[in-house]
Specification:
The structure holds 3 protein chains of 3 kinds.
Chain A: H1 5-53, H2 64-101, H3 104-119, H4 122-148, H5 165-189, H6 193-201, H7 206-235, H8 238-243, H9 263-270, H10 277-310
Helix pairs in contact in A: 1-10, 2-3, 2-5, 2-7, 2-10, 3-5, 4-5, 5-7, 6-7, 7-10, 9-10
Chain B: H1 29-46, H2 51-74, H3 76-110, H4 116-120, H5 134-165, H6 168-181, H7 186-201, H8 208-233, H9 236-244, H10 249-277, H11 281-286, H12 305-314, H13 321-351
Chain C: E1 5-14, E2 17-27, E3 32-36, H1 43-49, E4 60-68, E5 71-72, H2 80-86, E6 87-90, H3 102-111, H4 119-132, H5 136-139, H6 152-165, E7 170-174, H7 182-195, E8 200-204, H8 208-214, E9 217-223, E10 230-237, H9 238-243, H10 248-254
Parallel strand pairs in C: 3-8, 3-9, 6-7, 7-8
Antiparallel strand pairs in C: 1-2, 1-4, 4-5, 9-10
Helix pairs in contact in C: 3-6, 4-6, 6-7
The chains are: A mainly alpha, B mainly alpha, C alpha/beta.
Keywords (chain B): Cell membrane, Membrane, Phosphate transport, Transmembrane, Transmembrane helix, Transport
Organism (chain B): Haloechinothrix alba
Transmembrane segments (chain B): 28-47, 53-73, 85-107, 133-163, 170-201, 207-224, 256-277, 327-348
C-alpha cells in the first residue's frame, strides 16, 4: 500500500513540533490565568500609586486615600452583609424546595427559573429597583420608622424617593440569590441517597430527614456559597449606582435619604468625569475592592473544595 | 413503633383507639386551607389596601390554618413538617416575584420604542424624541465579539491544559484560581483594562478593545470551567483509539477530543457571552459612551447597549420621557438578547447532549 | 509486511510497582499468538507495552527490549507515534469515534494524521479495509451514517477495519470479543483467521476455547502470588500447550482447576 512510508518518513519531525507547540500553547494559556490575576493586582497598584503617595490634601475629599475609601468600604460592607443575611436563608430554602419539595418533573425547570434571575443584567436590576422597588418601599419604611424607630437601622427620617440603602440591599439580595442557590443545590444533589433512606427508614418526616441527613451534609457548601454571594454583592456596581442616592458619611440608617456609597458605585459614578489624581484615587479604591473580594472568594473556594474532598468517596 | 403513612387514611380512624396509629389529614385539607387564605388575602387586595399585605396575609393565614389543624389531628411532628413545607414553597414563590416583576416592568415600559427608527438610527444630533441605538448595537456586537475572540481560544486552551496536560500541583493551583477569577467584580476587570492601557498609551485613553479585554477577564474563567467539565466527559477509550492509530497527542486532542466535547463547550461559550453582553460597569470605565457609530474598536469611545441605557436614564433631556423610553427599550432589547442566548445554550446542550461512552 | 517481534527480559512498572517481570518471547510473523492467564496476571499490560501504549498511564515505564524486525522500539531516538503506526490495536470494548461516520472512522488513521490522499484512493482504501474486516456488505449502503449506530459486533469489526486501514505490520487485540455475543465472536474469530496471512497477530483472551480455536502459539501468564509480578510461565505451540504442557500451573489453568 502506498501510504506506509508517508507518516514515518516525512511527517515525523513535523508531528513532534506540533506536539511541542500545542503543549506549549495550552500550558501558556494555563499560566496566563495566573498572570492575569497577578496582573490585575500589579496594574491597579501601579495606577493607584500616585494617589497613595500624594499629599492628603490633593486627594479628592482632601483627607487622603484612606479617609476617602473608608466610608465607601463601610457602605460596601453594610450593603453586602445585609444582602447576604436576606439572601442566604432564602437561597437554602429554595434549594431545598427545588431538590426535595418540587414535583420531580418540574424540578429542573424551576431550577432554571431561578438561574434566569442570574441572567438578568445588573443595569436592568438597577432600573427596576429605581422605578418599581424604591417607590414600593416608601410606605413600609414609614411603618418601620414609626414602630421600630428605636433600632438604629430604622431611625429615619424616611426618604421620600425610596432610593435608600434598604432598596440597594434588597436588589443585591435578589441578585446573589441564584448564585448561592446554584452551589447549595449542587451540594444537596450529592447527598448520599443512603443517608436519606436511612433517616426515612427510622420514621422521620420529610423535615426531620432534611435536618438529620441533608443540612449537616450541606453545611460547608452553604457557608462557601454564602461567601461567594458576599463576594458578588461586594463588587456589584450598576444596580447600586442607579438605586442608591448617596450623600457620603457613615451611617447604619437604612431608610433615610443620607446613604454611604459603595466602592463600586462610587467608581462608576465618578470615573467617567475624573482626570488626573482623581482617577488614581478611584483606582486605589478599586484595588481595595479587589483585595477584599479576592480574599472572600479564596476563602469561599477553600471551604467549598474542602467539602468536595471530604465527600469524594461518593 | 408505628409510622403513619399515606395509605392510612380515613379508614384507619376507627382503629385509633385499638392500635396506636396516628390520624392524618385528608389530602384535600391543605388545599381547602389555601382556598380560605387566598379568599381572605384576595379580598384585602381587591379592597385596595395593599397587594403586598394581601399576599403576606394569605401566607400567614394558610400556615396558621394548616399548622393548627395538623397539630390537633396529626400531632406536633407532622405539624412542624407541614409548616416547613409551606415555608419552603413560599420562599420559592417569593424568589419568583422579582423575576416576574422585572420582566413585566421591562416589557411594559420597553415596548414604547421598539420601532424601526430605534434599530436603524444612532443618537447623532438627536435632541428630544427619536434617535435609536444602532450605534450601541454595533458597539455591543463588536466588543462582545472581540471579547469572545480573545476568551474562547485562551479559555479552551487552558481547559485543554488542565484536562490533557497538567499534572499535580500546578493544575490544582490553576483550577483554584480559575474559580477565584469567576468572582472578580466586573468593575475591577474594567479598571484592570484601563490601568493596562493607561500604562501603555497614557491616561485618559478610551477604546473598544479595552472593553473587550475587560470582558475577557470575566469570560475566560467561564469558558475554562465549561471546557474542563466537558473534556472530562470524553471517554478515555477514544483517546486510546486515536493513540493506537499513531495519532500524535495534539492532533488527538484537536480532532477527536474537542469535536466530541464541542456541543458542551459551545453551550458554555454561549452562556459566557450571555453573562458579559449585559455588563455595564467595565465598559463605563473603558469605552465610555458616544452618540454616533464608531466601527473602529482600536480608536475612541464606542456606544454599547447597557452603557447607553444607563446614560439615557441618568442624564435624560428635557423633557425626560424620550430618553427614558429609549433606556427601557434598550433594556428590553438587552434582556431579549440575554434570554435568547440562554435559550440557545439550553438547546445546544439538549440537542447535542454527549452520548454515553459506548 | 508482517514482522516478527522479539521481546527480551521485559520488566513493566506502574510507578514503583513491578507488574510484569522478565518476559522473553519471540512472536512469529503471519501467525496468531494468544496470551492467556488469570485476571491481573499482566497479559494486557504486556500487550500494551508492545506498541508503547503502556506509557500513557502516568508514571508507567518499562525496562528491557522489544524489537520489531530487529529494531528496538524503546530505543532512545524512537518516536512512540511511529511505533504505533506500525502496530495497530483493537480494544476490549468497541470504540468507534462517535463524531465520525463509518467511512470517516475507517479513514481516521489517514485523516487524523493529515496524510494527503486523493478522494478515489481513499474510497478504495476504505472499501478494501471494510472488505478485509468482513464488514463491507453490511455497511456499504450507510457509509455516511454515524459509526456508533451499528451493532456491537459490527462496531468491533469497524474498529479492526480502522486499525488495518493504516497498514500496520502487527495487530494487537486486547480481549476483542469479551463484550460481544457468540455470533459476533464467531465473526471476529473468522476474521482473525482471514487476516493471518498478512499480519502478525497477538491476541489476549480470557477464553481458552478461543485461544485454542484461533491461535498457532499460546503463551501462559501467571502470578506467583497476590502482589507479585506477573510472569510468562510457558510458551509453545497451541496444540502442545493444550495437550501436553510442561508446567503444572499451565495444566491446572487450562483444565480449569483455578483462574
Amino acid at each position: 500500500m502506498p501510504l506506509s512510508e508517508t507518516p514515518s518518513a516525512v511527517a515525523r519531525p513535523r508531528l513532534r513540533a506540533g506536539d511541542r507547540v500545542f503543549a506549549g500553547l495550552s500550558t501558556g494559556a494555563g499560566l496566563l490565568i495566573l498572570f492575569v490575576l497577578a496582573g490585575v493586582a500589579a496594574f491597579l497598584l501601579v495606577e493607584a500609586w500616585p494617589a497613595l503617595t500624594a499629599p492628603p490634601e490633593e486627594v479628592p475629599g482632601g483627607r487622603g486615600v484612606a479617609l476617602y475609601v473608608w466610608p465607601l468600604l463601610f457602605g460596601t460592607a453594610l450593603s453586602a452583609v445585609f444582602a447576604l443575611l436576606i439572601a442566604a436563608p432564602l437561597a437554602v430554602t429554595i434549594a431545598l424546595f427545588v431538590t426535595y419539595y418540587a414535583p420531580r418533573a418540574l424540578a429542573q425547570g424551576l431550577g432554571y427559573l431561578i438561574d434566569l434571575l442570574a441572567a438578568v443584567p445588573s443595569i436592568i436590576y438597577g432600573l427596576w429597583g429605581f422605578t418599581v422597588l424604591a417607590p414600593a418601599t416608601v410606605g413600609p419604611s414609614g411603618w418601620l420608622a414609626d414602630n421600630l424607630g428605636f433600632i438604629p437601622l430604622f431611625a429615619g427620617p424616611v426618604s421620600a424617593t425610596g432610593r435608600t440603602m434598604l432598596v440597594a440591599i434588597l436588589v443585591l439580595a435578589v441578585m446573589i440569590l441564584p448564585i448561592i442557590t446554584a452551589v447549595v443545590r449542587e451540594a444537596f444533589r450529592q447527598v448520599p441517597r443512603l443517608h436519606e433512606e436511612a433517616a426515612r427508614a427510622l420514621g422521620a418526616t420529610q423535615w426531620e430527614m432534611l435536618r438529620m441527613a441533608v443540612l449537616p451534609f450541606g453545611r460547608s457548601a452553604i457557608i462557601g456559597a454564602s461567601m461567594l454571594g458576599l463576594g458578588r454583592a461586594l463588587g456589584e456596581t450598576m444596580a447600586v449606582t442607579i438605586v442608591l442616592s448617596v450623600s457620603g458619611g457613615v451611617t447604619v440608617n437604612l431608610i433615610s435619604s443620607g446613604n454611604p456609597s459603595t466602592i463600586a458605585a462610587d467608581i462608576a459614578l465618578q470615573f467617567p468625569e475624573s482626570t488626573g489624581l482623581a482617577v488614581n484615587t478611584l483606582i486605589a479604591s478599586g484595588l481595595v475592592l479587589f483585595a477584599v473580594t479576592f480574599a472572600v472568594n479564596m476563602a469561599a473556594r477553600t471551604v467549598i473544595n474542602r467539602r468536595s474532598e471530604f465527600s469524594g468517596a461518593n | 413503633m408505628s409510622v403513619p403513612t399515606r395509605t392510612e387514611r380515613e379508614s384507619d380512624l376507627t382503629l385509633t383507639e385499638a392500635a396506636p396509629v396516628r390520624r392524618t389529614l385528608p389530602p384535600w385539607a391543605p388545599y381547602a386551607a389555601l382556598a380560605v387564605a387566598i379568599a381572605v388575602g384576595g379580598t384585602v387586595t381587591l379592597a385596595g389596601v395593599s397587594a403586598g399585605l394581601g399576599a403576606v396575609l394569605t401566607v400567614v393565614l394558610y400556615v396558621a390554618c394548616v399548622v393548627t389543624v395538623s397539630r390537633l389531628v396529626e400531632g406536633p411532628r407532622k405539624a412542624k413538617d407541614r409548616a416547613v413545607t409551606t415555608v419552603v414553597t413560599s420562599a420559592f414563590l417569593l424568589a419568583l416575584a422579582p423575576l416576574i416583576s422585572v420582566l413585566a416592568t421591562v416589557i411594559s415600559r420597553g415596548t414604547a420604542r421598539m420601532d424601526v427608527e430605534f434599530f436603524t438610527f444612532s443618537m447623532r444630533g438627536v435632541v428630544g424624541e427619536g434617535g435609536g441605538v444602532y450605534h450601541a448595537i454595533t458597539g455591543t456586537l463588536m466588543i462582545t465579539g472581540l471579547a469572545t475572540l480573545i476568551s474562547v481560544p485562551v479559555g479552551m486552551l487552558c481547559g485543554v491544559y488542565l484536562v490533557e496536560y497538567a499534572k499535580g500541583r500546578l493544575a490544582t493551583v490553576i483550577t483554584f484560581f480559575v474559580d477565584v477569577m469567576t468572582g472578580i467584580p466586573s468593575i475591577v476587570a474594567g479598571l484592570f483594562a484601563y490601568a493596562l492601557f493607561a500604562l501603555i498609551l497614557g491616561p485618559g485613553v478610551r477604546m473598544g478593545l479595552m472593553g473587550a479585554v475587560a470582558l475577557s477577564v470575566l469570560m475566560i474563567p467561564v469558558v475554562v470551567r465549561s471546557t474542563e467539565e466537558m473534556l472530562k466527559l470524553v471517554p478515555n477509550e477514544l483517546r486510546e483509539a486515536a493513540y493506537a492509530l499513531a495519532v500524535p497527542k495534539w492532533r488527538m486532542i484537536l480532532k477527536v477530543v474537542i469535536p466530541t466535547a464541542l456541543a458542551g463547550i459551545a453551550t458554555g461559550v454561549t452562556l459566557a457571552i450571555a453573562r458579559v453582553i449585559g455588563e455595564t460597569a467595565p465598559l463605563l470605565v473603558t469605552v465610555g459612551i458616544t452618540q454616533s457609530v464608531n466601527l473602529n474598536p482600536f480608536d475612541g469611545r464606542m456606544a454599547t447597549l447597557p452603557v447607553s441605557a444607563y446614560y439615557q436614564y441618568v442624564n435624560p433631556g428635557v423633557p425626560p420621557d424620550p430618553s427614558l423610553d429609549r433606556a427601557w427599550s434598550a433594556a428590553l432589547l438587552l434582556i431579549i438578547i440575554v434570554m435568547a442566548l440562554n435559550l440557545v445554550a439550553r438547546l445546544i446542550s439538549h440537542r447535542f447532549a454527549p452520548k454515553s461512552g459506548g | 509486511m508482517a514482522k516478527h517481534i522479539q521481546v527480551k527480559d521485559l520488566d513493566i512498572y506502574y510507578d514503583e510497582f513491578l507488574a510484569v517481570q522478565g518476559v522473553s518471547m519471540t512472536i512469529e510473523p503471519r501467525s496468531v499468538t494468544a496470551l492467556i492467564g488469570p485476571s491481573g496476571c499482566g497479559k494486557s499490560t504486556f500487550l500494551r507495552s508492545l506498541n508503547r501504549m503502556h506509557e500513557l498511564v502516568p508514571k508507567a515505564r518499562v525496562e528491557g527490549q522489544v524489537a520489531i524486525n530487529g529494531r528496538d522500539i524503546y530505543g532512545s531516538n524512537v518516536d512512540p507515534v511511529d511505533v504505533r503506526s506500525e502496530i495497530g490495536m483493537v480494544f476490549q470494548r468497541p470504540n468507534p469515534f462517535p463524531t465520525m461516520s463509518i467511512y470517516e472512522n475507517v479513514a481516521a488513521g489517514i485523516r487524523l494524521n493529515n496524510v494527503r490522499m486523493k478522494r478515489s484512493e481513499l474510497d478504495d482504501l476504505v472499501e478494501r479495509s471494510l472488505r478485509s474486516a468482513n464488514l463491507w456488505n453490511e455497511v456499504k449502503d450507510r457509509l455516511h451514517r454515524p459509526g456508533g449506530g451499528i451493532s456491537g459486533g459490527q462496531q468491533q469489526r469497524l474498529c479492526i477495519a480502522r486499525a488495518i486501514a493504516v497498514d500496520p505490520a502487527v495487530l494487537l487485540m486486547d480481549e476483542p470479543c469479551s463484550a460481544l455475543d457468540p455470533i459476533s465472536t464467531q465473526a471476529i474469530e473468522d476474521l482473525i483467521n482471514d487476516l493471518k496471512p498478512d499480519y502478525t497477530i497477538v491476541i489476549v483472551t480470557h477464553n481458552m476455547q478461543q485461544a485454542a480455536r484461533v491461535s498457532d502459539t499460546t503463551g501462559f501468564f501467571n502470578l506467583a502470588d497476590v502482589g507479585q509480578p506477573g510472569q510468562l510461565i510457558e510458551m509453545d505451540t497451541t496444540a502442545k500447550i493444550f495437550s501436553a504442557p510442561r508446567e503444572q500451573a499451565t495444566e491446572d489453568y487450562i483444565t480449569g482447576r483455578f483462574g
